[in-house]
Amino acid sequence: PAADGIHRIPLPLPMDGLRAVNVYVLETEEGLTLIDGGWAIQEGRAALESALAQLGHRLSDITRFLVTHAHRDHYTLAAVLRAEFGAHVSLGLGDKASLDAIHSPEPTARNLNYLLLRAAGAPEIAEAWARFSAGSVPDLAQWSYPDTWLEGDQTVVVGSRALDAVHTPGHTQGHFVFADRAAGLLFAGD
């Protein structure tokens, strides 16, 4: 365990040089709170299910996700498991524009990378990205809106722990870190 009642579970990231994303399990009397959810791919779900089983838990024991940011390797499995088991999902409000773009019926709006590359002055790369992603439609079940938007710095109670949820825009506009000052722990996402 990373600390008493806290466990780190590395979930796979195929096609990524990092190889894994860390998901943290916080055990509470009310069930499990996970910081980040992982990528909604079969390998990720299987690894999470297996790791939870080793801890004596099941996916249905997850009651809450605190997601650091809305990238597929941190958010999408949380959204899928919430739909399946009813866990509560929280995400930074600054990432709402990204989810809005994904949910847009306009294909160009859905392709946020295309828009960002054009706005950054890289039209050739933007066009190459558009060709690469042509015809792809996001699975909206993986990108559903969270139950709660986190806005501004605040304290989030997780069992007997008080986590400082600190808005840290940069990696994404809605990025949050969660600090357990009493235990000297920081859950930072990317």
How would you describe what is shown here?
By secondary structure, the protein is α/β, with parallel strands linked by helices. The protein contains six helices and ten strands. The protein has helices at residues 42-54, 72-85, 96-103, 107-110, 112-119, 123-133, and strands at residues 6-12, 20-28, 31-35, 62-66, 88-92, 148-150, 154-158, 161-167, 176-180, 185-187. Strands 1-2-3-4-5-6 form a six-stranded mixed beta sheet, with helices on one face. α5 (112-119) runs antiparallel to α6 (123-133). The protein is globular, with a radius of gyration of 17 Å. The relative contact order is 0.16.
Topology summary:
Elements: E1 6-12, E2 20-28, E3 31-35, H1 42-54, E4 62-66, H2 72-85, E5 88-92, H3 96-103, H4 107-110, H5 112-119, H6 123-133, E6 148-150, E7 154-158, E8 161-167, E9 176-180, E10 185-187
Parallel strand pairs: 3-4, 4-5, 5-6
Antiparallel strand pairs: 1-2, 2-3, 7-8, 8-9, 9-10
Name some characteristics of this structure.
single chain, 190 residues, alpha/beta, 6 helices, globular
Report low-confidence residues grouped into runs of 5 or more: none
Q: Summarize the amount of helix as a percent range.
A: 25-40%
Largest sheet: 6 strands, mixed
Element order: H for helix, E for strand? EEEHEHEHHHHEEEEE
The dominant shape is globular
Strand order of the largest sheet: 1-2-3-4-5-6
Number of DSSP strands? Answer: 10
The percentage of residues in β strands lies in 25-35%
State the end-to-end distance: 21 Å
Number of helices: 6
The secondary-structure class comes to: alpha/beta
Radius of gyration: 17 Å
